[in-house]
Design a protein that fits this description.
It is an enzyme of class 1 (oxidoreductase). It comes from Tropicibacter naphthalenivorans. The protein has nine helices and 15 strands. By secondary structure, it is α/β, with parallel strands linked by helices. The chain has two domains: 4-123 and 307-336, Alpha-Beta Complex (Quinone Oxidoreductase, Chain A, domain 1), CATH 3.90.180; 128-281, NAD(P)-binding Rossmann-like Domain (Rossmann fold). Bound molecules: NADP nicotinamide-adenine-dinucleotide phosphate.
Amino acid sequence: MTDQMKRIALARRPEGVPAPQDFSIETMDIPAIKAGEVLVRVSCLSLDPYMRGRMSDAPSYAPSVDLGATMTGQGVGRVVASKADGFAVGDLVTGMTGWADHAVLPAAELRKLPEDIPESTALGVLGMPGFTAWTGLRKYGLPKAGETLVVASATGPVGSMVGQLAKAAGLRTIAIAGGPEKCALAVETFGFDAAIDHKAHDDAASLRAAIAAATPDGVDIYWENVGGKVLEAVMPLMNVGGRIPVCGMIAWYNGAEAGDKLPLIWRSVLTKRLSVNGLIIFDHWDDFPDFLSDVAPKVAAGDIAYLEDIAHGLDDMPQTFISMLTGGNTGKQIVKL
Ligand SMILES: NC(=O)c1ccc[n+]([C@@H]2O[C@H](COP(=O)([O-])OP(=O)(O)OC[C@H]3O[C@@H](n4cnc5c(N)ncnc54)[C@H](OP(=O)(O)O)[C@@H]3O)[C@@H](O)[C@H]2O)c1
């Protein structure tokens, strides 16, 4: 077994769009494991939009990554050494390994994975993003058959799960996605009733006209993944009593525009009596076993589709992350080592 590991650390805090120079690739000794700890050799890493927030030191709901520390993130790998009861060499596990090819973690922070499904699903369709969609739709979306749902980043792991669950509940589902290929995927792979290319519309008014044409009965649920132009387009189309689970605002993760559009947005919240719920998935982890019992058999049976975009190697991870923030990924972004 090697005694060296490679990791990617945060070298400086990005200004606007992150640059490769904001990260450093380092080789270091693998830390010695203590009682109760496990050494994992990582085979698969997750890249997620929330990581942009962790690169900033602005106050947030979660702590930022310290300068010089390993970038945070979930990984999957095999146990190569264990000083913890219940974990043996060879076990397949997942935990917050960080952007690294090895990680020493307390056993309590690891979860064993089954061997009979692809390991990468623990990072996407059967992991945090899939669970976010499942729990947020049930608790805040409150879908009813016959209603209409709109979601952007619709081919990503959250949006594609939201769309499929809503469709199965009898809703009309409208995808917003970037480019004709993703729009085709939204309809053909994820069963959306229609898909609208946000990149084909320069402004919110034009995008709104396209969404209005696809939603003749208005919008009952807008699942908020992106903010920006899409939010501005959808808000006036909301029906009385509509619901907006606010899950993410990726359009603003590299910096927000001036806030002079807020009057339009918040006037819609007021006049339509909308419920707007902030959703942070770590408030809901107690429901994760229920999510797996419900969704894992459907994934195994092929009743829930998922897409993964597989990149390779630690060295290009910063560039892959930067690209994901502006739509370079198609499906859940995974990095295989
Ligand atoms: N609240 C929580 O606990 C929680 C948990 C998980 C995820 N989230 C949030 O959920 C959202 C989706 O995350 P995900 O994990 O499913 O990843 P994801 O969909 O793969 O996110 C990347 C995608 O976002 C879309 N995007 C980027 N900039 C955009 C813009 N300006 N306008 C419209 N779309 C844009 C792009 O898709 P297109 O090319 O199709 O535009 C891109 O491929 C993110 O905002 C994330 O932060 C929140």
